[in-house]
Design brief:
CATH topology of the largest domain in chain B: Rossmann fold
Structural class of chain A: mainly alpha
CATH class of the largest domain in chain B: Alpha Beta
Order of helices and strands of chain A: HHHHHHHHHHHH
Helix content of chain A: over 70%
Helix content of chain B: 25-40%
Largest sheet of chain B: 6 strands, mixed
Number of strands of chain A: 0
Number of strands of chain B: 14
Number of domains of chain A: 1
CATH superfamily of the largest domain in chain B: P-loop containing nucleotide triphosphate hydrolases
Number of helices of chain B: 11
Strand order of the largest sheet of chain B: 6-7-8-3-9-10
Oligomer: heterodimer
């Protein structure tokens, strides 16, 4: 394929993915909006004032960046894992496999679809958060870069999950038993500086802690982790998962017999 | 330009469970041909087609499409192929128009051209009125036509159809045949597998029969039918018959008082049979084959229970 044909193929996959999550917006865009509103009501407006300030800001301002990031993580992962597994299950993935589209375009297209949903949900969550908290933007570049990297990373993770999944149960195991605990323990609702030494050290092994804190740094200017380390860590994960995803496509794991 | 549309050399496939589906297949299909690939269930037809459209990884062998190697010229070879699989494999929640435009996009067609092509092929296959409905709402025949339209939207030179008329009614089958004849006449090479051997005899110029992973016959339909040692005809008579007329040297039986079943050996002509009946005052008002000729050959060549079950489907 010529570079122009590859670009057309990429845009086609991206548009199809965007059309998919817009078509089923009550399942893709509405639930995160309701969930984050409830979080703001309970943790911000009801419980927050009793907790008092955290890391030098009001509690609702502290949790807002974490909640936005949590929405982005769960939705990018969920978009790619359900879309790609759905295409596998319904065999419509064969439309792509019989076409001349190179594997890296297929992967990049699905990842871009996940990022698009992550950005859409992130934007919805940010707008809703403004009803509850006064958010500034300390470092816009850092916010944007970490949002994009995180969305790419969890899109890739969702893709890998979808490749290995053999049933719809398999696409909910990782989000339920891995992603949710890591996100909740990743400093969304508290500063890890409050934890005893052992748990604080253990928390630093959680990659999501770095993403949430870097995003929080970009918004509030406060972080529990060094921002440079966070970018390096997420960057390495992105490269590693992208390479592994391409390997899975090249070896046709679960796609070709 | 290459005169060979498809060249397969030494094609082998052994699945992970050890099953050897293809045991070294050689096949050539010429440009512009209408080619049938026949065989009983499990013979290797779908595996062969799966390899051609890269849904199955071959174990060994070489495949070229219009001179382009599917391994080394992956992208160029795939552009030449359009595939209509046996099972519906489109997203049932998408609209036919979107399915075609998306498929065209996978082949790098700019959006404006993709939309024009989608309109053209949806109209050609009588689906234009359904373009904005969710595909799951279409009837089985419409879904089958949608897959043909999708396979054609990038205008491939080689169209591969796996059981294209399975489960569709006779009227639709005939209209699909007519459509396939027309695109073949315009230069598209067509390969099809089918359960309906009448379909192969009616449409195809060449046929290969595959059995247990090997090609057991590869010739023209006409030459293949010449191999049939005899044919069985059913004759309907105007007047009722009390007994079977003298048919020698033909063999026959009376099915009922208006119907004679006669085996006609290739050494004799039908004229001799009719002359014999005329002399005895038997007037024949209609005649038909007892079974499809290709069907009888198929059973003869493959010669097992599975094949019989297949052709009866």
């Amino acid at each position: 394929m010529t570079p122009r044909e590859k670009w057309v193929a990429f845009v086609t996959i991206l548009l199809r993915e965007v059309r998919r999550f817009l078509r089923i917006w009550p399942q893709t865009l509405l639930p995160p909006a309701i969930t984050i509103t409830l979080y703001f009501l309970i943790f911000g407006a009801l419980i927050g004032p009793r907790i008092g300030p955290m890391a030098g800001v009001s509690y609702i301002e502290f949790v807002a960046p974490g909640l936005i990031m949590m929405s982005i993580i769960t939705n990018t992962y969920g978009n790619v894992v359900s879309s790609f597994y759905g295409a596998k299950f319904g065999r419509s993935v064969e439309e792509l496999l019989v076409s001349p589209v190179p594997n890296w375009i297929i992967l990049t297209g699905f990842v871009a679809g996940g990022v698009a949903r992550g950005l859409a949900v992130g934007a919805i969550a940010t707008v809703l958060s403004l009803f509850f908290a006064r958010l500034s933007l300390s470092h816009a570049g850092i916010v944007l870069a970490m949002v994009l990297l995180t969305a790419v990373l969890f899109s890739l993770a969702g893709f890998i999950n979808a490749v290995f999944a053999r049933s719809f149960d398999d696409i909910s195991i990782i989000p339920t038993f891995v992603l949710t605990p890591l996100t909740y323990l990743g400093g969304v609702f508290y500063s890890v500086e409050l934890l005893p030494d052992f748990w604080r050290t253990l928390s630093h092994l959680n990659p999501i802690l770095y993403m949430i804190n870097t995003f929080r740094y970009g918004v509030l200017g406060v972080s529990d982790v060094p921002v440079g380390v966070a970018f390096a860590l997420v960057g390495v994960f992105v490269v590693a998962l992208y390479a592994y995803s391409l390997y899975l496509l090249r070896t046709s794991k679960g796609l070709r017999s | 330009m290459a005169e060979i549309a498809l060249s397969i050399r030494g094609l082998r496939k052994t699945y992970d469970n050890g099953f050897e589906a293809l045991k070294g297949i050689d096949l050539e299909v010429r440009r512009g041909d209408f080619f049938a690939l026949l065989g009983p269930n499990g013979a290797g037809k779908s595996t062969t087609i799966g390899i051609l459209c890269s849904l199955v990884r071959k174990t060994a062998g070489k495949v070229e499409v219009f001179g382009k190697d599917i391994d080394t010229q992956f992208s160029a070879a795939k552009k030449e192929i359009g595939v209509v699989p046996q099972e519906f494999n489109f997203n049932h929640f998408e609209k036919p128009f979107d399915i075609l435009v998306t498929q065209a996009g996978y082949y790098g067609l700019p959006r404006a051209l993709a939309r024009r092509r989608a309109e053209h092929y949806l109209k050609a296959l009588d689906l234009w009125d359904k373009r904005a409905e969710q595909s799951r709402m279409l009837s089985g025949g419409m879904k089958r036509r949608l897959m043909i339209a999708r396979a054609l939207v990038h205008e491939p030179k080689l169209l591969i159809l796996d059981e294209p008329t399975a489960g569709v009614d006779i009227e639709l089958r005939r209209s699909l045949w007519q459509f396939l004849r027309e695109i073949n006449a315009r230069g598209t090479t067509i390969i099809l597998t089918t359960h309906y051997l009448e379909e192969a005899e009616s449409l195809c110029r060449h046929v290969a029969i595959i059995d247990r992973g090997r090609i057991v016959e590869n010739t023209s339909v006409r030459a293949l039918i010449q191999k049939l040692p005899q044919e069985v005809f059913i004759l309907d008579t105007r007047e009722p018959l009390a007994t079977l007329p003298d048919l020698s040297p033909f063999r026959g039986r009376l099915r009922d008082d208006h119907t004679i079943e006669v085996e006609v050996d290739r050494r004799y002509s039908l004229n001799e049979l009719f002359a014999k009946l005329s002399r005895q005052g038997v007037e024949v008002v209609s005649m038909r084959n007892r079974a499809n000729r290709l069907e009888e050959l198929f059973v003869m060549l493959v010669g097992n229970g599975a094949a019989t079950a297949e052709v009866a489907a």
